[in-house]
Amino acid sequence: MVQLNNSAWTLGLPVRQLSCGSQPVLSKPWCRPRHFSTTPRHNVQYTRFSDQQSHTSWFSRDPAAKIFVIFCTGGVLYYVSHLEQVPETGRWRFMAISPKYESKLAETAYAELLAEFRGKVLPADHPITRHVRRVVTSILEANNLGSLHSSEPRRRPFVDDFWGEDPYGAARQRETDATPESGGKEWHLLVVNDPKVVNAMASFGNIVVFTGILPVCKDEQGLAAVLGHEIGHVVARHPQERYSSAKVLIFIAFLLQSAGLDWGLSRLLSTLLLELPNSRTQELEADAIGMRLIAQACYDPRSAVE
């Protein structure tokens, strides 16, 4: 136990001796206690572990959040990289379908149409079919959009027809990836005998005309206006646009269901963001394109108003 001389402390005299028990430790007055550490003093700062954990972000602590952000970022990049403008109107839209896959969709759609209207399709030599075919051919050829697929059997070439037909046409490779709007593919025409259906439609290079719309059209001018509108949808690639937009909605629905935030929002977004505005916009575009098409084919565009 370290003790100081009591008499020296009480008289205010300098300390002469510092004893530890009976053994002297310091006997000189100029000796002072020294620090055994050579490092400078620092202010001590206490850090709580709870404070250190509170500064970490939720992104680094939640793996599900990382996956969600990665999916959202990838989706935005994919969407932006597939934006294009409609050549006829300049409207920006999302398009994510290749011409090769588009040709497969056209073949599948044509097979489904044949199966759906089996027994109701008028033959190619029927007067109504010839009437409709004449109008469609005029519009397609005048606008360099291709030609109609011929359902009649081809005539066997003879020696006299050598210079009239291409003898090497069968050996050439056909372009299966060409699209109707590029003028490199044949269109299919189906005239369905159903007087109760007043409608006509076209998608993926397939044109369907119901006989119930012919009395409404009255003549070739009215029929050209209807067919020009429907062909305008194909020229503007509206079916492909709706197919591409459906992929976006499926992706958004997947994200909402993964986050547990669906609650019917995917269906609401489909109605408000896709069906209502796009249908109106596409119909206006088809009207504008259709009037140009029929005008190029020497039909009166004013018949579309009637």
Give a short synopsis of this structure.
Helices cover 47% and strands 11% of the residues. The chain is of the alpha/beta class and 306 residues long.
Helix vs. strand class: alpha/beta
User: How would a crystallographer describe the biggest sheet?
Assistant: 4 strands, mixed
Determine the mean pLDDT: 75
Instruction: Please report the number of helical segments.
Output: 10
| Mass-distribution shape | elongated
Tell me the total number of β-strands: 9
- Give Rg in angstroms: 42 Å
Spatial strand sequence of the major β-sheet: 6-7-9-8
Strand residue percentage: 5-15%
Ordered list of secondary-structure elements with their pairings:
Layout: E1 2-4, H1 6-11, E2 18-20, E3 23-26, H2 49-54, H3 58-61, H4 63-81, E4 83-85, E5 92-94, H5 99-116, H6 127-142, E6 147-148, E7 186-192, E8 200-203, E9 206-210, H7 214-217, H8 220-235, H9 238-259, H10 265-296
Parallel strand pairs: 6-7, 7-9
Antiparallel strand pairs: 1-2, 2-3, 4-5, 8-9
Helix pairs in contact: 4-9, 6-8, 8-10, 9-10
